[in-house]
């Protein structure tokens, strides 16, 4: 094709066909590249990609999309095959092949199984619904652990067939938890992947991928069910599949790079910043994030205090006398929040004035955590921070250490911090906050929203300051 006659060319997406528009005799001619088997193969491959990948891939999805989906495909493949073996075990336990079993007893057991599952789904959604957003990765991985636990129990139903109904009720509750946790966390992950507001399409394509994997795995499981007639070999094979399933799930959730803060990601970032003066990008922070429920860096390990945000101050108010509390609140007359430390209980309350923005949540946590470290130093309590310079550069911890040297705790002072300290600390924190957000704004973090748990209590105090001071 002569380039002299070409007026323009266009291409469908990144990997699609290229069309050339060239000069004809008083017309514009549209022409594809010359045919070849390589181009035919690429055309078939592109058609397959359109079925299993979102429109505009890879620019229409997050950078971690492909790695997550590959591992998710592996875990779905293993889960489908394992589920085929558990289905056979359930049917044996329900009496299939047993002349003494009746259709009525099997139907009643099935209804009870479904009923307990429905109750479990309702109760779990009420109990842990909020946590699914705040700890998406942990609950995603936990859902698959629970799913494998349920299937492992169901495998032994033929051995304990007299308790099949009770076992099925228990596993149905477990699987209802999996359904709620898995569905909710998958929606959160899809929202993260949809960088061009194409969440519905990504969800539909994910359904295509899962259906295709389940179809292939189901066909293979028919063969495998006929092959494994030895009980011991079957159990070895099933538990090997479960191990691969859990490994694939672990790799999948670890591959996700969320750019929004939850409590653990914020703590990891602040610990690095406090000790080294470095604000990390989302990828290294996500790599350090723990995905196992019940583990990971928390408030107490980080700063020595438990930080509660948006909770009632009913219990905290008993630790202050009226004049002292009013004087303390004056330090926050220009803030949309105030912070109350309780040294005796080891907690710090962050109380918001109204609906808070993500930046205000991060600012309040920054304030509270630095205050917690300062209090620990004031009372000579161990806390896992480095109070020295890093590579001859000052850090928030080295600057805080300099400030704290001017404060010495009186021998009889057990749980009271001088009011004057809070006033001095406010000036210190304002300069630290300015430096922190100047650098944070240059990083890749999404500050439009967050996944940090904040309670529903909102507190008004500014209107009463002049009256009470």
TrEMBL record:
<comment type="similarity">
    <text>Belongs to the RUS1 family.</text>
</comment>
<dbReference type="GO" id="GO:0016020">
    <property type="term" value="C:membrane"/>
</dbReference>
<feature type="domain" description="Root UVB sensitive protein C-terminal">
    <location>
        <begin position="279"/>
        <end position="461"/>
    </location>
</feature>
<keyword id="KW-0812">Transmembrane</keyword>
<feature type="domain" description="Protein root UVB sensitive/RUS">
    <location>
        <begin position="43"/>
        <end position="274"/>
    </location>
</feature>
<keyword id="KW-1133">Transmembrane helix</keyword>
<dbReference type="InterPro" id="IPR054549">
    <property type="entry name" value="UVB_sens_RUS_dom"/>
</dbReference>
<keyword id="KW-0472">Membrane</keyword>
<protein>
    <recommendedName>
        <fullName>RUS family member 1</fullName>
    </recommendedName>
</protein>
<dbReference type="Pfam" id="PF04884">
    <property type="entry name" value="UVB_sens_prot"/>
</dbReference>
<dbReference type="InterPro" id="IPR055412">
    <property type="entry name" value="UVB_sens_C"/>
</dbReference>
<dbReference type="InterPro" id="IPR006968">
    <property type="entry name" value="RUS_fam"/>
</dbReference>
<dbReference type="Pfam" id="PF24160">
    <property type="entry name" value="UVB_sens_C"/>
</dbReference>
